[in-house]
Amino acid sequence: MPNLREKLDNLYCGLCSLAVFRNLLDDSVISALANLMREQAEDNHFSIDSYSGFVSELYRHSANLSTYILDAVLNDDNFYIVRKGAGFTESEPEIENAVYNELGILQEISCLSPDDLQCGYYRNITLPRWRNSEIDFVPEYRKHVEDIGKYGYGKYRKNIMFNLKNGRTFPVSSPDRQKLSELFGYERERNAVINNTLALINGKKAQNVLLYGDAGTGKSSTVKAVVNEFADRGLRLVEITKEQLRDIPALIDELSKNPLKFIIFIDDLSFTAGEDCFGALKAVLEGSVSSRSDNTVIYATSNRRHLIKESFSDRDGDDVHRNDTMQEMLSLSARFGLRVNFSRPDKKNYTAIAVELAKANNINLTDDEIILKAEQFAISSGNGRSPRTARQFINQLIMEM
Fold it and tell me: What is the pTM of this model?
């Protein structure tokens, strides 16, 4: 039976032999652990600096080494899981064997206790410790592969909302946690968006959606709340700007290989005459060969139904074919398969939203008092009636409580 030094040497060699999960060697915690294992295996000498440095890295995430390593394994976007996500169900037997052999190595490493790594150290100092859990990595990873269409892998497993920068997607550092249950009014409009999104999630044909109407009516909040609602069913959001419209075909091509479903979100979209980037969006909406994918749809919000900031000078310009040009620009919105109008609410609907928000926030006022104060707030603030104004009114009440 190998002694502790031999055990650490064997595990260190096993870690170095990783092929499928080789990305994990760059993980800060696993790298620090590997360095500590190597030092003790080679020199049988305890380094308090290496030990505490490893624990410090672990503490940034967790005090449980086993769950940390398992999470790193499940989040790893190695070539094996990428192929599984792309629909390749079979792998060569050598690769399959390597996957489960490496999972065994990583599981054994995840069971290393503080006592295993304090060998040869006898000074009377209380060192930081961590805990371990008994976890069978193989069935956990198999379940991960089976559920890849719901949870994804890599950064898409850990995050729900993303931005596009230099052609690559990056997680949003502070995503909007808006919930559908926190939105009131506009049930018909919101249900249209929800039903279309469920079609996407269920593998049916979904439409590209334009949410248009007055400012502050909850268009953007609806999109983000829908994504949060169905994130556990494999839905993700990638937000892009108008200036990034030309990147959409490449983005769709990248996302098409992913098992998850994606909403490409363009907030507050509008164009002015002379801008030509709307042509890129038009090509995608029309379904060009390079921009078709069953797992992506485009959701855009705009205060303008036709997306165009049009002036009289545009109509009277010197373009010989200006009528054709204007018609092409004005018909862009028609290329969205589903168009949902969020119009400014009347007094009745506005105050109804304020009353519901007051109840949700436990405001101790009668409905009549809320209605009176909400209307006064809409007038005095100068913002007019809208769900956003109702939310601002409730925030004001909460602040005064």
Answer: 0.83
